Amino acid sequence: MPRSKEDFKEITLKRKNTILETALRLFSLYGYDTISIDQITKESKCSHGLFYHYFNSKQDLLDQLLKTVIHYWNKEIEQIDLTQNPLFALKDLNVFVTNYLKDDVKTYILYLFLTFHLQKNIPVPKIKNKEKFKNNRPFAKLFEIINKGQELGVFVEGDPLDYIRIYFSALQGLAYSRIHLGAKKFKPVNIDALTNIFLKKEEYHV
Amino acid sequence: MPRSKEDFKEITLKRKNTILETALRLFSLYGYDTISIDQITKESKCSHGLFYHYFNSKQDLLDQLLKTVIHYWNKEIEQIDLTQNPLFALKDLNVFVTNYLKDDVKTYILYLFLTFHLQKNIPVPKIKNKEKFKNNRPFAKLFEIINKGQELGVFVEGDPLDYIRIYFSALQGLAYSRIHLGAKKFKPVNIDALTNIFLKKEEYHV
Amino acid sequence: MPRSKEDFKEITLKRKNTILETALRLFSLYGYDTISIDQITKESKCSHGLFYHYFNSKQDLLDQLLKTVIHYWNKEIEQIDLTQNPLFALKDLNVFVTNYLKDDVKTYILYLFLTFHLQKNIPVPKIKNKEKFKNNRPFAKLFEIINKGQELGVFVEGDPLDYIRIYFSALQGLAYSRIHLGAKKFKPVNIDALTNIFLKKEEYHV
Amino acid sequence: MPRSKEDFKEITLKRKNTILETALRLFSLYGYDTISIDQITKESKCSHGLFYHYFNSKQDLLDQLLKTVIHYWNKEIEQIDLTQNPLFALKDLNVFVTNYLKDDVKTYILYLFLTFHLQKNIPVPKIKNKEKFKNNRPFAKLFEIINKGQELGVFVEGDPLDYIRIYFSALQGLAYSRIHLGAKKFKPVNIDALTNIFLKKEEYHV
DNA sequence: GATGAATGAGAATTCATTCAT
DNA sequence: TATGAATGAATTCTCATTCAT
Fold it and tell me: Which of residues 12-31 of A touch B (CB under 8 A)?
């Protein structure tokens, strides 16, 4: 009697996830080009053949990995409440993000997400890109927060994109450090330092 | 007519410099691992043999390139006057840096410098690293500026390293965008946005 | 209601036949080496496991396929009446063969038969091979026809094998064209052109 | 002192020719898909690296090989004098071709030429293809010969393309036999048998 | 009979590096 | 200095075949 479709699906999912997790770690640590499929399969304890049973190519693995990472991140970022005061929203975002840096896997996710996303999404003309941002929750979220904060006069004036570029690049840099130093050596960043990027430098009252 | 020894040396240097410049561009654009020696030699219009005449290995090329880049950068950064008001010093630094982003080659230099330097120098324990920073002008410079600014009360409190991490990671991100968008599509960053990273949120008068 | 044993056998044969037909088509179109078992199983909508239930190996599939093809062909060719005038017999053969080229599957059969048979059976020394030909109906048939025609003086003189080689190679070439052009683009060959291979260049009266 | 460009060209040409000749033989004997680059390089006594120094891919090797083969064949076929009586021209062609079958390498060339050319050039609509034939000397030559012969009434009527298909397919079959039997076992084909394909089967006077 | 996961040997291709001149 | 041929190990990818269920 053959195994059921669910059985197969489960087997596939387990193995695929193992490979994806290994790739997530190795790509984050050493970069896509530096890591060979052999390293991935050895650490995932699977054969080359099986690897290509699940992924069409090394590039396909990266694509699927990024898809997973983006999906995961977008879902997580949903938790932040935008209706509240933008200062609090920003604080929530920073807490959320610094918490990510406490966990190995989450740091990899953060790093990969930013590394591959910054290449395409950040440097865009101006305001009308709002549509593009719809598929890009974190950037869109921050965009909204900044807009609101500027309207309320608590955030510094200027093109929100400038601040988005600075903020996410900084995050990427921090994630990079966190990855290569490890949890022990890495000194957690001060949330206020991150918040300060956006604050208007006059007296303000919430 | 036989060329003089100096002529030869000049020719030599020209050839070597061509290779270094090509590598600078290609490494910045596509990464060290992605670029093959064949690509470098082809674009430099030199043979493999000549390449290995000047460089012991691909890694050696990178080392020499980084050495050159670091040396160049350190020298340039010397121009900033530390004795002045830290706000002005910071502004000078930001002007200096944003000007770099206007020039292709200088952007490559900035990017490579930060990419390879951030990996080693930023995420260090705490204050006693001052010594390490001696070999690292830009970081040391900024460290001094921040220290002074904090003493004068115009810069936000907190570990200067946090701000250094944020600042240089942001710069790297900007350089990355600049490289991949090209001069035309890249929107120059607002200097005030960079400065704002460090400012205290009270009124200040220069 | 449980299916009878015969039902099962029929199902089995259906599955196996599907594989054989798929292989027939793919091998004819792209060649044995080019086609992978994965392609065959995918197009046959069966699993690798089932494939190896029916066939011991890829080579075994080919062997069984050829066996089937040869058997089929030999049986069909029996229909041609040898006792009649060799000119009529030849015409019958040509009609038979050009009719084959009107049907996709039959063209595959013809092509495979000739491709794999020409490699082994055609280029044999001389007359004593008559025995070998016993297992090879089409060649033997033609051999007989030619012999008779030569005796009657309507066929050109010379070693019948020469004409057999020419005739069947030509057929293979035509089948090849037919396969790769498809039914629409393929221009049917003139039967007289095929017959002409064997005719003596004097006047003849049927 | 570096070697001159001519030196390099000579070295390259020698090695490339060795590889091309090996490939010609192996592809003809066993087929493109069956032969691995490893087999080619081993028999050519060169490394994989060198192979890819000269050829971009296995497919590129085949392309270059076919180009060479076609060029060679087209040049050789030029020797046949078309202005003479078509019967003599046809005889010349047949002598030329059967001579080819006496030499190993030339047989490979003939076989490869026909194998890869028959796939594209033979089965074409009708008469207006004359233009296409311009790039295809052997087919064009035969076309002209047949046309002339039909006008003179010594060649059988009908679409010349039918006879071309039959003739060249037969040749390919003969070359195939010759390759796989070797020079010793292969029985040379009778030139008259080849000529007979085209002859009108009535009395004629030259 | 039937499924598809899993294997591993081998194929195509790349690339840093060495070598002869 | 300078050239580019040559190497060989490593890398990506394919595929016939086996296995557990």
Answer: 31
